[in-house]
Design brief:
By secondary structure, the chain is mainly β. The chain has strands at 15-16, 21-22, 24-26, 31-35, 46-51, 59-60, 65-67, 73-75.
Length: 86
């Protein structure tokens, strides 16, 4: 499922696999969407993230998100928190 389309005014194409819950990935850069330090409260920032001690070891993070019945997206472990923007 494509979440955003790359093109003018939008910097990346993000996708989610393993519906209804999976990692949200920017596959072009092998990065995943992560809630800042796993701090699942309203207003927390989210990041495109890679982890690893060296450049060769870099890999996407493992946080999983779910597409809810009403179409919102939330961290798998916090269904009451939805992605959005201010």
């Amino acid at each position: 499922m494509k979440l955003f389309k790359e093109g003018r005014g939008s910097p990346a194409t993000l996708s989610i696999s393993d519906l209804p819950c999976g990692r949200i990935m920017w596959e072009k850069e092998n990065m995943s969407l992560e809630v800042n330090s796993g701090y699942n409260v309203a207003g927390t920032k989210v990041w495109l993230y890679k982890r690893g001690k060296t450049d060769k070891e870099l890999a996407p993070g493992g946080q999983r998100f779910c597409v809810n019945k009403e179409g919102t997206i939330s961290p798998q472990n916090k269904s009451s928190l939805n992605l959005g923007y201010d």
